[in-house]
Specification:
Elements lengths: L1 E2 L16 E8 L2 H11 L3 H4 L1 H4 L11 H16 L7 E8 L9 E13 L6 E11 L5 E12 L2 E5 L6 E5 L4
Antiparallel strand pairs: 1-7, 2-4, 3-6, 4-5, 5-6, 7-8
């Protein structure tokens, strides 16, 4: 018998609807904002503090994609401790407020729904809402993600070629 897994993250079988996770924090500074923008989103309100004053944002702001990248890092570094890594299968992303220089970001995630896969018994689907907030408790990113999460299973191989029987450890 072989047990799949081996890391310390949570499996589908460990998750519960309503379960919450909180990440560490990350301070965003002006140079980070400008460096990301130079490489990935070169718009004036991300690159030039003076030019940004005359924009919709009235000052320098981080790219939404920069906020998304910081959010992902915070989730991966312990904000959403899923076994085998955070594997997305779609979702919805919103940026209701801009990220500004000096913001301290933190992510709070909540499991909204859980469904075992009908076609792949070694995994399930978790719907997770992750809110990224700044130090003023303003939401700067709202991500509702559909995640593929490994199940805690043991595989027994039978003598018949190609036949694999999955034994689940934990809830169904």
């Amino acid at each position: 018998m072989t047990e799949l897994g081996g890391d310390n993250g949570l499996y589908y079988d460990d998750l519960r609807i309503g379960q919450r996770f909180t990440s560490k924090t990350h301070v965003v500074d002006e140079e980070q904002i400008k460096a990301f923008a130079r490489q990935f989103d070169p718009q004036p309100f991300h690159l030039d503090s003076e030019a940004a004053k005359d924009t919709l944002f009235s000052g320098l702001v981080g790219s939404g994609w920069h906020t998304a990248a910081i959010t992902m890092r915070l989730l991966v570094e312990g904000g959403l401790p899923v076994a085998g890594g955070i594997v997305g299968a779609g979702g919805e992303l919103k940026w209701p407020n801009p990220t500004r220089p000096g913001d301290t970001l933190q992510v709070e995630s909540e499991v909204l729904d859980l469904r075992p896969s009908q076609s792949r018994p070694d995994r399930g689907v978790a719907i997770v809402l992750s809110l990224t907030r700044n130090q003023r408790n303003e939401v700067v990113q709202r991500l509702t993600a559909k995640l593929i999460v490994r199940r805690r299973v043991r595989i027994m191989r039978r003598s018949a070629p190609g036949v694999i029987i999955y034994l689940f450890i934990g809830r169904d």
